[in-house]
Amino acid sequence: MRKRARGGNMLIQNHWYPVCPSERLKSDKPVSAQIGKYALVAFRDRVGKPVVMLDRCPHRGVPLSLGRVHDGKIACRYHGWQIAADGALVGVPAHPDEAVPNCSVPTFEAVESSHYLWAWISDTGVRPSYQPALRGIQHGEWHQYTCVWQVNIIAAVENNLDASHVPFSHADTYPLRGDGTDEVPDMVFADLRCEVDHQSVVVWGPGRKQRPPPDFETTASMGMRFELPFRNYVWAGGRTARAIYNWVPLDNESCRLEFMVQQGAEPSGPVSIVLRDGEPHVPSQDRVLLEAAQRLNWVEGDEKPYFKSVPSDQPAHFARNIMKRALRGDGLSAQAPKQFNVSCWG
To answer: How are beta strands 254-263 and 116-121 bridged, if at all?
Structure first.
């Protein structure tokens, strides 16, 4: 049996990754999260500021996420060693009259934005060059799900730039034409437009009208977008829903999905986040298919060479190349966006 490849091979450096929804991080309980090769723990300090550090006690290596949070410090559940918000060891209950060992737990830059807690990942100590933010979270109720896919993260991202799979994979929920059954609805010709730059791919339509790409900031936007490190937006305009897929690599063959979805044509009022258990129906349909393909078609984080392609695969191919260059650490020099039409039946 081939051994699962653990580690950070699918981790793009010098980017923010979601640790957890902000609403999930309470003042008295730690939260664990895996981001590539990093097992992390998050908690709030005494003034409520989020803290992210390695999930490992410096004493015996027990995960700190199993411990307790009190007065802004986290205490290991094994021997009670106390770690301050800056990662320093500040207390050893078994030896209260002796100096504590000079050690600490590595910490990570952390910030709350767009209703998530984010951690900055950089193996080389590069400081954050931008602040994390999600597009279009302005009004109304959003539902948040956390799921794990046994799928290479590149394949997961590519799926949400593929317009031609929708009537087959999502026959029961196909926008405007799905009737709740598994019957494939009548296909229509889609003349789509695609714009590619050094760090994003946008698909929208109809292409022949030469409209500018949507900004994904309003409910009037409609299309699909990928942006680094691993994020998809799927915006169906005012007709059905808006979805944001934040992907986090776990290893070469799996990833975590932080998924937000909003239903309805005209959401209003302040933003509220509803934490939901389980897995939403539409992403689960994609997951089942991609997990089946994963076992056959992906090896050590790369696709097998017998993959064949058609013109409607172009947006996904551009996104794949952007992700692979970033994974290699190649420089992403700014370039003028390139536009082209992507026509297909779907």
So the answer is: unpaired
Give CA angle at 200 (198, 205), nearest 5°.
125
Q: Is the dihedral of CA 175, 179, 180, 185 positive or negative?
A: negative
Give the residue carrying structure tokens 């494939």.
184
Strand pairing of 116-121 and 15-21? antiparallel
Q: Which residues pair with 117 in a beta bridge?
A: 20, 112
Distance CA 247, CA 258 (A): 6
Dist. CA 5–CA 301, nearest whole Å: 9
pTM of the predicted model as reported, rounded to 2 decimal places: 0.92
CB 159 within 8 A of CB 319: no
**Are residues 280 and 177 located together in one domain of the fold?**
yes
| Domain-embedded: residue 157 | yes
User: 61 and 153: one domain?
Assistant: no
- Is residue 4 one of the residues assigned to a domain? no
Strands 241-251, 38-44: pairing kind: unpaired
pLDDT in tens, 52-96: 999 999 999 999 999 999 999 999 999 999 999 999 999 999 999
**Has residue 8 been placed in a domain?**
no
For the chain, give the number of residues: 346
**Segment 281-295, tens digit of pLDDT:** 999 999 999 999 887
The one-letter code for the residue type at 84 is A
- 331's tokens: 């420089």
Report CA Rg, the chain: 22
Residues contacting 267, CB < 8 A, separation 6+? 139, 140, 141, 219
- The domain of 321 spans 141-345
